Amino acid sequence: MTKTTRTTLATCIAVMAMFPAQAQQAPAMDMTAAARRAAATVRTMTADEKVILTHGIMPLGLSKTMPPIPSDAIPGAGYIPGIPRLGTPALKETDASLGVTYVMGARKDGATALPSGVAQAASWNPDLLYRGGAMIGSEARAKGFNVLLAGGVNLMRDPRNGRTFEYLAEDPLLSGVLVGAAIRGVQSNHIISTIKHLALNGQETGRKYANVRISEAAARESDLLAFQIGIEQGQPGSVMCAYNRVLGEQACASGWLLNRVLKQSWGYKGFVMSDWGAVPNIEAALNGLDQQSGEQLDPAVFFGDKLKDKAAADHRWKARVDDMNRRVLTAIYAAGLDKHPVTPGGKIDFEANAKIAEEIARQGIVLLKNNGVLPLAKTAKSIALIGGYADGGVLSGAGSSQVHGEGGPVVSRPASGKGVWAGFIAQQYHRSSPMEAIHALAGSAKLTFRDGRYISDAVEKARQAEVAIIFATQWATEGLDLPDLSLPDGQDELIAVAAANPNTIVVLETGGPVKMPWLDKVAGVLEAWYPGARGGPAIASVLFGDTNPSGRLPITFPASEAQLPRPKLDGSDWVEPDFGGNPTSGSDKLDLDYDIEGSDVGYRWFSRTGAKPLFPFGYGLSYTRFESGGLKLNGLTASFTVRNVGQREGAEVAQLYLVGRNGKALRRLAGFQRVDLAAGASQTVSVTIDPRILADWKDGGWILPAGDYRFALGRDAEQMSEPVTVRLAGNRWKD
Fold first, then answer.
1. What per-residue confidence (pLDDT) applies to 3?
2. pLDDT, position 19
3. What are phi and psi of 128, to 5 degrees?
4. Bridge-partner residues for 241, per DSSP?
5. What does the alpha-carbon distance between residue 460 and residue 500 come to, in Å, rounded to a whole number?
6. What are the residues facing 276 on neighbouring strands?
7. Where are the alpha helices (H) located in 470-602, listed in sequence order?
8. For residues 722 and 712, what is the distance between their CA atoms, to the nearest angstrom?
9. What value does the CA radius of gyration of the chain take, rounded to a whole number of Å?
10. What's the confidence (pLDDT) of residue 415?
11. Cβ count near 391 (within 10 Å)
12. pLDDT value for 21
């Protein structure tokens, strides 16, 4: 029997606090006060000054075709000159969400690499993402940068997307809460963070001309909601628009996206910067773009003298230019860039920062299968390690988020023999050896390593050892999608054969989901993602039980591509790969029909279709056991108890789902909280439900139908407790 209670929903909908109190280590920036100061500054600016902040270069100086690097610039992603007369600092920009990059070798200084975005999200821990953001923000500041191009939050509509590893989750609530925490962490250093890439940037194939077709309701309830929550909670100084087209318009020139949704509906006060090479024309300014980034990658410099001439001749353009400056200055003042200037050469505590990266990796590792072989006994006599360059390091994703640690990568495999793929995109492994970390914990065990190129050799070593650990890798990069979800280079065959040892464990270093045709042949599977600067020790710690695995999947692992809304990735059969995303096959017509799934992204799609995934969203095993129960609802507040009924300390991710509304089955994550518990301990958890998760977007606003709403506690998106029903009054509101 379900329980039923009755309540009313408050008419006034405010921004809800949906994350643990400990995540609130620094308040979001005060954009309102900064906007007033910015408006006063704009009134004092000359016509020439009003175009300075509207465009900038990519200061690399790697070729004669690039502009010279200004004397106060630092080689990096971007540079926008300051205005000394007004005390306005130059904007010095660096990639990216996973750490400070040095862009094609323009600088040779190392930085601390966080685990991939999906690995961070697997922790379901906003506090941890705040700490990671604060750490990479501090390194950016120490290197002289005051803008970090972080905050990737696009929903994972297709796991074959080459940038899946950079993003966080397939769910808007989880993505928005986590990115908001990361942004607050970055900006706690008095630097600007972006949130990116607005919006619906779902694949890399044809990324500059792929045109997303989707209804406004579906967009508002999914991808745009993730951005909205992230902006509310993080207050990023800037929003970076995307390469792709949305409803026929380039995202960086979409009046609907940038003006109507972002600035009017959401009331965003910061500025919109373009992605590099994403500006189609000067009219993008009228459609909401405030700053042209990396202008040498665009067809022309649109926001320089051309913009000045437009403003001089047309009052509408003059007002728009004033607004562009007001928005950039608002971000500068809110972050305190003028009062807290950056200078290169700051001290970085790499050891302390590496510990943060390691803790994120530990909490993000997901135990997918365990037939009792894990945790490993430190008394094991022999262990065979196979594949994945596990003797040297751990894999990272490539592209603009590629971080290089001190000393550079231990292994670098070019993706191609010539061109940009050889110079910029390579399979790189951070200097964090799983083998060395395992050796440190394995006592006197005999360790052997085989690279896996010759299956017969690897199988022989697996048979000789007490335990075999196969490290399987799936490399992903910006600019290139995966053709399918298999493991490349014959690794599926290697695992199937090497699993002749009954104590075979597979450690996956992947950018996202993979198929596992060998799953029933192995004793254990760990998803380690791209685990960052200290991935080796993090993996070893989980294998030997020094860390109780607590990661939960932020993305569904499908059993096959046939279960996806688009079994074949659009354009994969005719678009030739091009990192720039420009047409290479004689056409720039590539439509993506996102109305197939609409707002039912990921686990919602699986719930709708009834397909059984390989592993569901929210899934993850532990070395202890948890029970959750006693669910009670009081309006939009839910409370319940989580108990550790096992024999050792561990962390559970409590998940609350909306499972029905007025008799119709639904599946939406409505709340979550990570809970650390000693063996035998329990804790009461309270979560506040954002009403937008329960509502529909219709006729220009949110509509919450009156009626019965059913909620359940979930171990994951499939395993649910007995539902509890609450009656809510109907409501309608604008953003």
1. 43
2. 38
3. -70, -40
4. 198
5. 9
6. none
7. 491-498, 535-543
8. 6
9. 25
10. 79
11. 17
12. 39
Burial of 696 (0-12, 13-18, 19+ CB in 10 A): middle
Largest pairwise CA distance in the chain: 81
Q: Which two tokens stand for residue 485?
A: 């979800």
Kindly list the averaged pLDDT for each block of 10 residues, start to end, along the chain of length 735: 40 38 62 94 97 94 73 93 97 95 78 98 98 98 97 96 97 98 97 97 94 97 98 97 96 98 97 96 97 94 94 96 98 97 94 97 98 94 96 95 91 75 79 97 94 93 95 96 96 91 97 97 97 98 98 98 96 88 85 96 97 98 97 96 97 98 96 97 97 96 96 97 95 89
Tokens at 440, concatenated: 């440190």
Q: How far, CA to CA in Å, does 493 sit from each of 456, 470, 472, 497, 628?
A: 11, 12, 11, 6, 40
In this structure, which amino acid lies at residue 273? Answer: M
pLDDT value at residue 581:
84
Interatomic CA distance for residues 593 and 566, integer angstroms:
9
Asked if 407 and 431 touch (Cβ cutoff 8 Å), the reply is: yes
From residue 31, alpha-carbon distances to 34, 54, 147, 333 in Å are 5, 19, 16, 8
Which residue from 507, 450, 437, 423 is spatially nearest to 473, judged by alpha carbons? Answer: 507
Neighbour tally for 595: CB within 10 Å: 15
Task: Enumerate residues 6+ apart whose C-beta is below 8 A from 607.
Answer: 600, 665, 666, 667, 717
Q: Per the structure block, which two tokens stand in for 611?
A: 């397909």
Say what the alpha-carbon torsion angle 576, 580, 584, 588 is, to the nearest 10 degrees. 110
Task: Name, in order, each residue with C-beta under 8 angstroms of 573's C-beta and a sequence gap of 6 or more.
Answer: none
pLDDT at 577: 85
Distances (CA, A) of 76 to 273, 347, 391: 16, 19, 32
Rounded CA-CA distance 54/292 in Å is 6
What is the Cα–Cα distance from 595 to 219, expressed in whole angstroms?
9
Extract the tokens encoding 422. 């050889």
Distance CA 87, CA 336 (A): 12
pTM, two decimal places: 0.94
Query: How far is Cα 704 from Cα 5, in angstroms, rounded to an integer?
Result: 17
Structure tokens at 194: 């972006």
Instruction: Label the pairing between strands 524-527 and 366-370.
Output: antiparallel
Supply the DSSP string of 401-417, one letter for each residue.
Answer: T----TT--SEEEESSS
Q: What is the residue whose two structure tokens read 């790499």?
A: 350
Tokens describing residue 306 = 């051309």
